[in-house]
Design a protein that fits this description.
- Belongs to the sigma-70 factor family. ECF subfamily.
- This is RNA polymerase sigma-70 factor.
- It comes from Pedobacter puniceum.
- 76% of the residues lie in helices and 0% in strands.
- It has 175 residues and is an all-alpha fold.
- It has two domains: 91 residues, Rna Polymerase Sigma Factor, Chain: A (Orthogonal Bundle); 84 residues, Winged helix-like DNA-binding domain superfamily/Winged helix DNA-binding domain (Arc Repressor Mutant, subunit A), CATH 1.10.10.10.
- Helix 1 packs parallel to helix 3, helix 2 crosses helix 7 and helix 4 crosses helix 7.
- The mean pLDDT is 79.
Length: 175
Amino acid sequence: MANGFEALFKAYYAKLIFFANKYVNDLPVAEEIVSEAFSFLWERKEQYEFDENFSGYLYKMVQNRALNYLKHKKIQSEYVNYLQKNNLLSEVPTFEQNPIYHKEFEQHINQAIENLPQRCKEVFKLSRFKELRNKEIAKQLNISHKTVERQMSIALEKLRFKLQHLLFFIIIYFF
């Protein structure tokens, strides 16, 4: 199974990023969408046969994720517009006005990062805190570039899931 997955990953990763980018018009978002799709498949690799007929399913999966991203982005935008239109956004305290919120967010995020599997946590911290590129992380940890990409994808998916309850507040504070 892993060999079929790896072959599929090598054959379609870049193509799918290009495909997703046609929808979202944001390369980092397109990369994240494709990484999430592959992470989803990797976690369920025993359920699939990764053969040459699998590409259609893969493209549809990426398309659906891109469309979901656009839908959520539109909802966020409409909500922020509503808050601005009704002068509600100015009533929400910012981090500068209430540092307790900042500390709480930071605690939730740090806890979620610490709960990641060890390899995911290492890769995530090197990428986000030390700002290393994937190739540098691979060299430092003595793992393949693809393993770094997979681990980062898994880390982002797990963090997104664990922190989704904070999304509403993050939208208000950062948008």
